Amino acid sequence: MKISGYIRTVLILICFIAGFLVVCLFPDLCDLYTDHIYVKICNRVSKITGNIRINLGECIMYLLSLSLVLLLIFLILLIFLRKKKGYKKFTIGYVKTISILLLLMIVVYMFTWAVPFSGKVLGGKVYSARVTYTNDEVETVLKYLVKNINQAADEIDIKYVMKGNKYTVEFKSDEEMNVLVIEALRSMEEDYPRLSGYYPVIKIAYCSDVLDIMNIGGYNYPYTMEPTCNKYVDPLYQPLLNCHEYVHHKGYYKENEANFISEIALSKSKDPYLRLIAYLDMYYYVSSSYYEKNHKMPDDLPKFTERVKIIQKASYEIRDKKYNEDSHFFSSNENISNIIKKTGDKGWEIQGDILKENSYDGVTLLLFQFFDTCQLF
């Protein structure tokens, strides 16, 4: 029996996918691949795509979505035009083309996302064997974090403007901030060697309005190696978001490991803005874990200084100004906005179910494993 070229191609691609799925069952093998092969692919591909001004991955996503919509239309039309041989031949050819493209994308996703994702947390680099923490330990860490938050805020210049009776904070430009972010990540190379190598420019998402409704700060396109961020991010949070996306880009695709590495890297920075957001983010996760367990916060916990609140307020105002300067088609339509939000909420729920202990909530345990090395307890 003669097998057509299309069937042979489909079978070969399915075999590749099956092979990668088998590899995903062995975390040590996944880490070996990520440490020695993925990083090389990442550096070389992102040097090309990073220098292309358009968001290549995002454009491919739109084209793929359009092609699937057209596929549905063509199949519906086939019901009425099935007797026309030319149209039937065209539709069959279109279906075959789309199916090959989808299988190719899955193959690419397997070795640029699924295999790195299936490795051990932090590539197996753990600081202690801790699996839990007590309320007293949490309170100790929260006091330590508040102290560092207030100290970082003290180093940031705040000016009082008499006209308008308000305070202003001079945040760094995106370029200056990103240089410091990359510096901070490179300081972690000894513990996490994947962080070495090339760092592309983080691109601004064309669909930032939709991402804002979905509460998504950024994402990566594994098939083009492009880290991308939401346009509507406040300048204080921006370095943490960029750092988080860079860590994903380097092969740490679980959310707890990406947040953890970002927080530790930025907390070691010489720049007070980076340290401030790093400790604020740590505080958010640790305090949330405490509150979830106790339904209240510790009674004797020190407070953030007024400087911290001023810096946060100034940052939010810049974000709001940036947002209000643009028109927002999706968010201005309540029905469309609700559909997008529900889709986003479902996506977050599915992600949490898939990641489980490696979701965002898992950041707290990684922090406590790290704090075991800091002689806090």
Task: Show the helix and strand layout.
Elements: H1 5-23, H2 27-49, H3 56-81, H4 85-117, H5 135-154, E1 158-161, E2 166-169, H6 174-186, E3 203-204, H7 208-214, E4 218-221, E5 226-229, H8 238-249, H9 255-267, H10 272-294, H11 306-324, H12 329-332, H13 334-355, H14 363-371
Parallel strand pairs: 3-5
Antiparallel strand pairs: 1-2, 4-5
Helix pairs in contact: 1-4, 2-4, 3-4, 5-10, 6-8, 6-9, 8-9, 9-10, 9-14
Number of strands: 5
Radius of gyration: 24 Å
What series of H and E elements makes up the topology?
Answer: HHHHHEEHEHEEHHHHHHH
Helix/strand structural class: mainly alpha
Q: Output mean pLDDT.
A: 92
Helices, by number, come to 14
The parts where pLDDT drops under 50 for at least 5 residues are: none
With strands numbered from the N-terminus, the spatial order across the biggest sheet is 3-5-4
Distance separating the two termini: 71 Å
Shape: globular
User: How does the major sheet shape up?
Assistant: 3 strands, mixed
Helical fraction: 55-70%
